Amino acid sequence: MLLLVGDDWAEDHHDVELMDSSGRTLTKSRLPEGSSGIARLHALIAAQLGDDAGDEAEVRVGIETDRGPWVAALNAAGYVVYPVNPLQAARFRQRHAVSGAKSDAADAHTLADMVRTDAHQLRAMAGDSPDAEAVKVVARVHKTLIWERTRQTQRLRHALREYFPATLEAFDAPDTLELLGKAPDPAAAARLSRAQISAALRRARRRDIDTKTTRIRAALRTEQLGRPGVVTAAYAATTRAAVAVLATLNEQITALEAQVDAHFHRHPDAEIVLSQPGLATVLGARVLAEFGDDPTRYVTAKNRKNYAGTSPITRASGKRKLVAARYVHNDRLVDALMRQAQSALQTSPGARAYYDRQRARGLDHNPALRQLANRLVGILHGCLKTRTHYDETTAWSHHVDKPAA
Questions:
Q1: Would you say the pTM of this structure is higher than 0.85?
Q2: Based on the domain organization, do 74 and 175 belong to the same domain?
Q3: Band of pLDDT at residue 328, cut at 50, 70 and 90
Q4: What is the distance between the alpha carbons of residues 253 and 143, in angstroms, rounded to a whole number?
Q5: Which residues form the Transposase IS116/IS110/IS902 C-terminal domain (predicted)?
Q6: What gap in Å lies between CA 150 and CA 157, rounded to an integer?
Q7: How far is 367 from 311, CA to CA, in rounded Å?
Q8: Sign of CA dihedral 373, 377, 382, 384
Q9: What is the per-residue pLDDT across 222-231, written as a single tens digit (0 to 9) for each?
Q10: Range of the domain at 30
Q11: Is the predicted pLDDT of residue 174 greater than 70, yes or no?
């Protein structure tokens, strides 16, 4: 027996609808979030399956998320869970209703109907191991904090440009945040002594301290256009706050990097991933986290490349044919793979030769790098499938120019 379940989730409840294989609604309910709600859902499903509940019974669940304890409980129960992209659900709903009406109960019906008619077009949730899930948790938060540090730094630079532009020349690296926290306004900065500046640079482990100290002190004492004292004081207060936030982010990024290292090296695929050119612990952890470790998820290298978003897409109609990059992709995974490709140029002769051939074809740097990233994904897939480490000669044997006969 086939039973379809649509689950429209909210923060504190779930609207669910159970449907049979013909599209007939069997029951609807609103369930609370948590263990009591999942227990009631199991009871609803068991009541519909009745005596058919066994090895031949299949329960498909459509839900617009792939995370959280609720989804983990659905997986643990043996249901086939389809995490549906909200955009896909919206497009499916428009196929059957053009009025624009929308409700939670109607969304549950849409999700149940999607897994009834379009399951072959949807990707079932991967069965990643707890170790892979742990790597994903710490690797994602680590990257999120790095992105947040970049945003905070840009906000700080924008504020400094408004009232104290000399600091943009003097403090040219995040290591000098200590000085900016001590002297966030022109008057205080001008009073900084050589000893204070050099001590801060020494604690930041900077090189050529004497030269940098002279340059920073001169930049902070140059004449510049000022703002009224009360405005400068207000900006200085916000700068101190921004510096404190950045200092905390730096501490937590360092702490989480240690967690990424610990969880990643605990995973059985870590050595294979680290053997790939351009991948060290942090990038390797991100790649493993975003791909997951379900051995049945990617049947072929092409499947993995398509998921990665590195393979091109073709739009053809009549005599017109366009090959373009994929703009809908996992940003975290693409970022890690492009960084890997950039690093591989320095460590792998095969990768460098492959990249150079793409440039010789007329491709710009980014498209050529994307092609290299796509090739590296294929190599990683082969290594994981055969449980072997990367070998430079084997990896690029099909791309070596053969001598003319």
A1: no
A2: no
A3: low
A4: 8
A5: 271-355
A6: 11
A7: 11
A8: positive
A9: 877 778 889 9
A10: 2-125
A11: no
